[in-house]
Amino acid sequence: MRARIRDRMIAHLDALLPWRYALSRPGQFKPNRRYRMLELSSPDCLFCKLSAEPASHEIYRDDEIFAILVLCPIRPGHALVLPRAHYPYFDDMPVTIAARIMAFGQHLGRIQKRVFNVERAAFLFTGGDIPHAHAHVLPLHEKTDITSTRYILERDLTFCEAPAAPPGELLEIAEHLRSALKS
């Protein structure tokens, strides 16, 4: 019975991800023949350059992912969690890397809620500005901190870049989050 259920789940996953992965055994992914091999880094990608050399506003790094504070944050503590290898879009990443980013994002979100005394933290994958998959994690002070123009009635709005965080503030927040992540 369990084998039949497992086989149906495998078939379902293969149907959902036909060109990415074929599940050989439970818990193991292997590339199938249509798997798109991606570069480990792209010479023109800003995030690949940050992956190679740690920045002062970096708050986490391991063999597969790293996290940095956003230079022009929506709110203090706004961070990006990125794969170290170059994947242009989130759906190009192996499921294992996406899961690592999600797990770290949850951990960071809990810390942001405590450090910035907010009820909620947001997490979303994006990649519109720079084609290197990344997730935003930020403390939500207001429900409009992350929103879509679909919720805005006035159509003639002018948007601008978020102001740059003062360098001293960015370094202070980075150090605070780094120490919270270690504890």
H/I helix tally: 4
Portion of residues in helices? Answer: 25-40%
Unreliable parts = 8-38
SS content category: alpha+beta
For the largest beta-sheet, the strand count, sense and barrel status come to: 5 strands, antiparallel
Q: What best-fitting shape do the alpha-carbon axes yield?
A: globular
What is the arithmetic mean of pLDDT? 78
Strand tally: 7
As a whole number of angstroms, the C-alpha radius of gyration is 19 Å
Our measurement of the CA-to-CA distance between the termini, rounded to an integer number of angstroms, reads 44 Å
Strand % is 15-25%
| Helix and strand pattern | HEEHEEEHEEH
> Going across the major beta sheet, what is the strand order?
3-4-5-7-6
Keywords:
183 residues; five-stranded antiparallel β-sheet; 4 helices; 20% strand
Write the layout of secondary structure elements.
Elements: H1 2-16, E1 21-25, E2 28-31, H2 46-52, E3 58-61, E4 65-69, E5 79-83, H3 95-115, E6 120-126, E7 134-140, H4 167-182
Antiparallel strand pairs: 1-2, 3-4, 4-5, 5-7, 6-7
Helix pairs in contact: 3-4
Structural commentary:
Residues 8-38 have low confidence and may be disordered. The protein has 183 residues and is of the alpha+beta class. It has helices spanning 2-16, 46-52, 95-115, 167-182; strands spanning 21-25, 28-31, 58-61, 65-69, 79-83, 120-126, 134-140. Strand 1 and strand 2 (28-31) form a beta hairpin. The radius of gyration is 19 Å and the shape is globular.
